Amino acid sequence: MTIITLTEPSVEPVTLAEAKALLRVETSDEDALLSTLIAAARMTVEVNTGRALITRTLQLTRDRWPCAPHLVLPHPPVQAVQAVELVDADDGVTEWPLDNYLVETSGPAPRLVLRPGVSWPAVVRPAGGIRITFTAGYGDTAAAVPPPLGHAVLLLVAHWYENRVPVVVNATTTQVPSTVNALIANYRLARL
Description:
The chain is an alpha+beta fold and 192 residues long. It folds into 2 domains: 2-53 and 141-187, Orthogonal Bundle (Hypothetical protein yqbg), CATH 1.10.3230.30; 56-136, no CATH class. 27% of the residues lie in helices and 23% in strands. It has helices at 16-23, 31-49, 147-163, 178-184, and strands spanning 2-7, 56-62, 70-72, 78-87, 93-95, 101-104, 111-114, 130-136. Helix 3 runs antiparallel to helix 4 (178-184). The chain is elongated and about 60 Å long.
C-alpha cells in the first residue's frame, strides 16, 4: 500500500500571526523559520495521529483488495472519494463505477464498502493495480481543525522555536512534548 499526496493543503492549521503572538515575536526577521516550523509541526501531529488536518487530495495504491467487504481508507477524516481505478498490465486505467460501492465517512474509520451483491473486481496488474483517489482533512480552513490539534501544532512550534534542537525519532514514534501528546491522545487512530 502506498499513499501519495496529489494536492497539498492550501493553508496551515495555525497562522503565522498566531505563532508570533504565542511566542511574543514582534518582528518579521524569523517569519520564514516560523512558517517552516508550522508546516513541520502540522506534519508531526498528522504522523502521530494518523489524521489529515487540512483538506488535501490523496491517492492510495494497493496490490490487492481486502478479504472483507470493505476497505478502510487512511488519513481520516475522509470527505469524499473521487475515483476508484483499476490499472492493467499495460498501464491502462479503468474507473470502477460508483454504483458498485459506497463511501462510509461517519465512523471513526472511513471505509469504501461494497454494495450488496457486488464483489471486488479482478486485479490484473500484480503490483499497484488499484488506485483510489480521495479528499481527506477536517476542512479548508484552520477553523475546521479541532482546537486541541491546532493548539498541539502551536505548542510544537513554540517548543522547537525555543529549543532549536532536532526532535528525536525512533522506529515507532516521533517524540513530542508531553503536553502535545496529551492534546492529540484522543485523536490517535488505534492500530489493529
